[in-house]
Amino acid sequence: MSAVAPARFTDPAVFGRVAVLLGGPGSEREVSLDSGRGVLDALRARGIDAQPVDGVPALAEAIVAGRFDRVFNILHGGDGENGVLQGLLQAFGVPCTGSGVLGSALTMDKIRTKQVWASAGLPTPRFERLPRGADLRAAAAALGYPVFVKPACEGSSVGVFRVLNEAALAPAIEFAAAYDGELLMEQMVRGDELTVGILGDVALPSIRIVPAGEWYDYHAKYVADDTQYLCPGLTGDAEAEIAALALAAFRAAGCHGWGRVDVMRDVERGFQLIEINTAPGMTSHSLVPKAAAQLGIDYADLCWRVLEATLPMEEAAR
Fold it and tell me: Which NCBIfam families does the protein's record reference (predicted)?
């Protein structure tokens, strides 16, 4: 199991005034608000001067007014994870948790992320890019059932369809007709569903997700209390292999700071990379806190460490 170095700082004053960015107008608003409340309470409990800010426009106004020194980004999806926020803050010289413009923008787009992984020789299920108006039946026939259909740039299992055969494709076709963005169709992997949190240069212990239903949908993620989270999800060589793969996938996509890499273990093809989340959930059901706890890092300490990454290493010597 990987070791995590001790926190570099003990004085909350080193962080200055911290904006906890949450909410926003997107489809993941409620999850983000829930995550943000947890982060805000944890930072304040550690003595950090932290204030909530709802959405990027409100944050931009506050940054222009000079009200914050750094940002803890827990705005899931949309401008919180697509590089817009990161570019804005970079232009103003305000540090922000998580990945920068490149890693955020790339991994928000599942199709382009998979293209990068494929070019780097990293394993990911076969897929088809579906621009607006694409023929879903033809794409599914080319890939072979069963398949998943999902928006290329959404999260939290929003708009995801599990399609076992052609007769079950109708809801996805109806959704596609009304959806403005690109869709991703990928071969469904049959096997264990796993996720690996990343904290700095360390892969946290894997988590194997066992939903009570047939698959890990929005309800299983955020509502149900009967989803099982087994941590570590693997042992021995398999755990070492998935940790190395997750770190390689994270770095190939230009990510840094913290995040979460979702992986499936196919019964025949082994580990298959699914996607990266650069602002993972921090709710009571969320996975990165569960994995960090296995290394003795509680929720408040995790928030501290994520925020600590916004301070340059040389600060520790001051």
Answer: D_ala_D_alaTIGR (TIGR01205), PRK01372.1 (NF002378)
β-strand pairing of 161-163 with 228-230: unpaired
Cα–Cα distance measured from residue 178 to residue 299, given in angstroms and rounded to the nearest whole number: 39
Query: What is the rounded CA–CA span in Å between residue 150 and residue 153?
Result: 9
- 157 catalytic? Reply is no
CA-angle at 33, arms to 29 and 35, nearest 5°: 115
Q: How far apart are CA 280 and CA 31, in angstroms?
A: 10
For residue 222, the model assigns a pLDDT of: 55
- CATH 3.40.50.20 residue window(s) in the chain: 12-98+311-317
d(CA 26, CA 23): 8
CA distance linking residue 180 with residue 159, whole number of Å: 12
The CA distance from 96 to 164, in Å, is 41
Residue 262 assigned to a binding site: yes
Q: What percent of the chain has pLDDT over 70?
A: 92
Is 61 part of any known ligand binding site? no
CATH code for residues 127-187: 3.30.1490.20
| Architecture label for domain 107-122+190-293 | 2-Layer Sandwich (3.30)
Tell me whether residue 277 is annotated as binding.
Answer: yes
Cα diameter, the chain:
65
- Told to judge if 166 belongs to the known catalytic residues of this protein, a careful annotator would answer no
Query: In the structure, what pLDDT confidence band is assigned to residue 318 with cuts at 50, 70 and 90?
Result: very low
Classify 12-98+311-317 by CATH class: alpha beta
pTM of the entire predicted model:
0.89
Which of the following is catalytic: 35, 99, 156, 206? 156
Are 288 and 197 in contact, with CB atoms under 8 Å apart?
Answer: yes
111-125, 126-140, 151-165, 280-294: range with lowest mean pLDDT? 151-165
